[in-house]
Amino acid sequence: MQQDRLRNPHPWTYEIPVAILLLLVLVTVLGIHTGRAVANLAAGAGWAWPPTTELFSSLPGLLSGDAGAGLSDPGVVASPRSLRVWVVATQGLNLIVCLTLSALAFRAWGPGRLRGMANRTQAAALLGLPRLRKHRAIIRPDLYGNATR
Q1: Which of 14, 40, 51, 121 could cysteine-pair with 45, CB 3.0–4.6 Å?
Q2: By the 8 A CB rule, do 114 and 2 touch?
Q3: Where are the transmembrane segments (predicted)?
């Protein structure tokens, strides 16, 4: 019923899905580099982050197991196995965070959201309990309407 009362005048076009896709690609790339940085930190090399020009060009080396790919002075780096474990762990954490944020966004702005309805706490703060009880027949006529029906 709420869907019929309010029409969205703006059609869905390609911009929103492309923005979401680009955001997911960026989160994936940054997650891979974060996994490498944590693997190198665990190996005793310290936290190392590549220059921004190397974020995408160092991905093939990272995915093949080279923990020093894209770093200006790699020094001691993590083993390929440690690198893969930490990259998978950070990507798993990224996946959980992205799914949680997507569920919250879908609940807040998705097609099934409540439009213009206050919850109990908001209504009580605005109206107060005595006023709600006084006007309950108007607010919920299906429950508290006159008895002469």
Answers
A1: 40
A2: yes
A3: 12-32, 85-110
126 and 89 inside one domain: no
Q: For residue 143, what is the DSSP state?
A: H
Q: How far apart are CA 74 and CA 57, in angstroms?
A: 16
Same domain, 129 and 109: no
Instruction: Flag whether pLDDT at 1 surpasses 50.
Output: no
C-alpha–C-alpha distance, residues 92 and 86, integer Å = 10
Do 110 and 122 fall into the same domain? no
d(CA 79, CA 75): 13
Residues 12/14/15/16 CA torsion (nearest 10 deg): 60
Integer angstrom CA distances of residue 119 from 24, 65, 114, 136, 139 = 33, 52, 10, 16, 14
Q: The pTM is what? A: 0.69
Find the domain containing 77 and state its range. Answer: 2-117
| Mean pLDDT, all residues of the chain | 86
